[in-house]
Amino acid sequence: MNTFDTIVIGAGMSGVTTARMLADAGQRVVVLEGRDRIGGRMNSDRQSGFSVDRGASWVHGIDDSALWELVQALGIPTLEYTVGSFQVGGRPIENFDGDGRPMDAAATTQWIADVEEADRLLVEEIAASSPGDTYLDVTERALDRSGLEPERIDEIREFFRHRVEEQCGAWIGDLDAHGLDEDAIDGDEVIFPGGYDEIPHRVAAGLDVRLEHIVTRVARSDAGVVVSTDDAEFTADRAVVTVPLGVLKAGSIAFEPALPEAVAGPVDRLGMGVFNKIFIQFPERFWNEESYVLRALGEAGEHWHSWYDVSAVSGIPTLLTFAAGPFGRHMQELADEEVVADVVRALRALYGDAVGEPQAHWITHWGEDRFSVGSYSHLAVGSSHHDHDELAGPVDGVLHFAGEATWGDEPATVGAAYYSGHRAAERILGRSVDLGEFAAGITAREQTAGR
User: Fold this and answer.
1) What are the tens digits of pLDDT across the range 109-158?
2) Alpha-carbon distance 120 to 130, whole Å?
3) Which of 32, 251, 289, 301 is an S-S bond match for 305, by CB 3.0 to 4.6 Å?
């Protein structure tokens, strides 16, 4: 009998969080997941004997972070890696100028000062912006006011474009002027040498998770909901939809009756970005051992511009670079071998023959993934931070939404997914759920099970 108190659609971080909290409160809960695995956009590939995080990688800022507290409570190993927020400085970065020449300490200091001044002006321009202004509009106004030489302005312009692409997966002209308002990083950032998706797997342990159950229809009435997959129907008092915004925008799940404007409007207005990862392993390190990032500025970094040293995860010299926004969509259409060859050409333009032949590579195609249809949400022109929170619903008291796109404070992060799942559970239960007790409950169950 497929009858439950709550049906959760999606076994990513938000879905398993909601389901775990409801199950802990005594509810009959089922999680329907279209993929053949738990984790959603947290996808750690361990086939090579070490972890390659094809999806989420970072906890962005561990200060006052409930997600970080969960990581610590579960005892999951991490490595400090504080450049995931696309910082201009603060950690050892090998910068190259627009001609591909290494920048010395004086040039790097000047570069950081230029960006900091441009950012100060940018904050003023964002505050003074009008509805409909794009991030491109406000950056150009800030650069016009900077008084810097044209060549220096060009390098900052390129830096701003890539920052938007890496943070949002979108072209700078498609992002609202306020699109990076919530992009503050408090404290260090960390990555996961054993794989980030250990978190959702451990949260989901013991839950009724049905993999390869692709939801096609969600019907609601005063009596509750009926959720249909290709070969089964499930009924419940309510449902929590945690599929990515890209899936909602694609319309691959039919909602009957149609979603009201209060939710459908945010789905239409918010954007879904594409952010793809390219990991490449080399026979030996050709960059400085203490460097976090290799970064080509200006014309030299038009396409491939930042390489992150993630060698500590595998113990093998490994660089991670990104293809995001329009460039990311284009790269998805190419053979992986073409992508790798293009990345290596860009590196050899900076380091010459010191760049050896790649030994292995991993490339993602999130924009082509039917279960995400993109990487994460962003504020497209015409949308607002309120749209993220409005997307959460509820609808008619029986349909809730969760996931990074439904959390306005820090969308596009695992933290947002976690907090939105927590919010959905609290709304359904009609009471607060303490996150510290939630984490303690997971570890207590593991101890009882002899983990």
Assistant:
1) 999 999 999 999 999 999 999 999 999 999 999 999 999 999 899 999 99
2) 18
3) 301
Is the model's pTM score more than 0.85? yes
Name the DSSP class of 81: -
Sort 24 into a burial class: Cβ within 10 Å, 0-12 / 13-18 / 19+: middle
Cα 288 to Cα 215: distance, rounded to the nearest angstrom: 49
Condensed to tens digits (0 to 9), the pLDDT of residues 389-403 reads: 999 999 999 999 999
The percent of residues in the chain predicted with pLDDT above 90, rounded, is 91
Residue ending a domain, choose from 368, 391, 406: 368
**Same structural domain, 234 and 352:** no
Going from the C-alpha of 244 to that of each of 67, 253, 277, 369, 405, the distances in angstroms are 19, 12, 18, 11, 7
Residues 217, 337 within the same domain: no
Strand spans (E) along 20-92: 29-32, 44-45, 52-53, 79-80
Task: Give me the CATH number covering residue 56.
Answer: 3.90.660.10
DSSP annotation of 333 reads T
Number of DSSP helices (H) and strands (E) in the chain, helices first: 14, 20
Give me the domain span that covers residue 53.
Answer: 45-85+186-194+273-368
Contact 182, 419 (CB under 8 A): no
pLDDT at residue 451 greater than cutoff 70: no
